[in-house]
Design goal:
- The chain is α/β, with parallel strands linked by helices.
- The chain has one domain: P-loop containing nucleotide triphosphate hydrolases (Rossmann fold).
- The protein is globular.
- α7 (255-269) links the parallel β8 and β9 (276-278).
- It starts with a helix and ends with a helix.
- Strands 3-5-6-4-7-8-9 form a seven-stranded mixed beta sheet, with helices on both faces.
- α3 runs antiparallel to α4.
- The longest helix has 17 residues, at 186-202.
- The protein contains eight helices and nine strands.
- Bound molecules: guanosine-5'-diphosphate.
Length: 303
């Protein structure tokens, strides 16, 4: 029941490319202003930046468009949206379920090799997933403000396990194995997908997956495949762009360009754009905002 309620919170079913009807989209008009709402724009000069576009549309068009680009949580009417309800550096609207987001206490509970070995508990959990080297350990450390937490999952032998951390004795952060190891054999990659997919499909207490995307590199097929798979299986996800402080990429494009390119591809595949947020574990960008977003997802699930 809880699972059904939670999963209906965000309709993420990807569309097949041939079904995709969002043809009105134009990159320069992605962000618009319904009822004085401006959606954060990825700017070349700074991250994050709020920029209002001047597109004029009828309210119903605006509302429809806003619903397709903003994450509007339960309890919020789109007509009542104002700028200050949108979290900086994200498309996430904060609603009445956001509350008590700070992490006071965290304890490692267990590592599991299979979904059915995970803690038997009905407390909600938020899983963190991403390519190896995406900055997952750094983000977890940044969220909990403790270095040793994510170190646990870096210990040899624990990197391919599902690691549960109990937060404030009320919910779990779940550190999932990184995917896309360059040096891992095909057999090991298959193992990863078998047991992690089992977790996504069978874990009733899973509220949301934070899918980490490295903003310092162009969109990677493996990340897009992962997002599409989660969407197809109705697993709620939030895109967390990492390393947004790296304004000058060593090679290739800047983070803002990489993020735009990633979002463009996602818009072409998804009916509604999942929540997304910019972060940096170095500067702390997005930390408090992400915690607030996690709190509203949890509290809605847990009501
Ligand atoms: P994991 O393999 O996904 O757990 O990635 P790590 O957290 O170990 O980070 C991989 C590399 O990226 C390390 O060299 C980190 O110092 C670096 N890194 C992680 N997060 C950030 C960030 O927000 N900004 C920058 N500039 N570097 C980061």
């Amino acid at each position: 029941m809880r699972l059904l309620r939670c999963r209906s919170l965000i309709n993420l079913a990807p569309l097949l490319p041939s079904q995709f009807k969002f043809h009105k989209f134009h990159p320069t008009r992605f962000f618009f202003t319904p009822n004085s709402i401006s959606i954060p724009q990825i700017s070349a000069s700074s991250l994050p930046t709020n920029t209002k576009s001047t597109t004029n549309r009828s309210i119903s068009d605006s509302a429809r468009f806003a619903r397709s680009v903003l994450f509007v949580p339960p309890g919020v009417e789109i007509e009542e949206l104002t700028d200050d309800m949108v979290l900086p550096g994200s498309n996430i609207v904060i609603g009445p379920f956001a509350d008590h987001s700070q992490i006071k206490e965290v304890e490692f509970v267990k590592s599991s090799a299979r979904a059915r070995d995970c803690p038997k508990d009905d407390r909600p959990e938020i899983a963190i997933l991403g390519r190896s080297n995406v900055g997952k350990s750094s983000l977890i450390n940044c969220l909990v403000r403790k270095k040793e937490v994510a170190l646990t999952s870096k210990k040899p032998g624990k990197t391919q396990l599902i690691n549960h951390f109990l937060v404030n004795k009320s919910w779990y952060i779940v550190d999932l194995p990184g995917y896309g190891f360059a040096k891992v054999s095909d057999a090991a990659k298959t193992d990863w997908s078998a047991f992690t997919k089992g977790y996504f499909l069978n874990r009733d207490t899973l509220v949301c997956v934070l899918l980490l995307i490295d903003a310092s590199v162009p969109p990677q097929k493996i990340d897009l495949d992962c997002a599409n798979w989660l969407g197809r299986n109705n697993v709620p996800m939030t895109f967390v762009f990492t390393k947004c402080d790296k304004m000058k990429a060593a090679k290739g494009k800047r983070p803002d360009e990489n993020i735009k390119a990633f979002q463009q591809i996602i818009r072409e595949n998804f009916k509604q754009h999942p929540p997304w947020i910019l972060t940096s574990s170095v500067s702390g960008l997005g930390r408090d905002e992400l915690l607030l977003h996690m709190s509203q997802l949890r509290n809605y699930w847990d009501q």
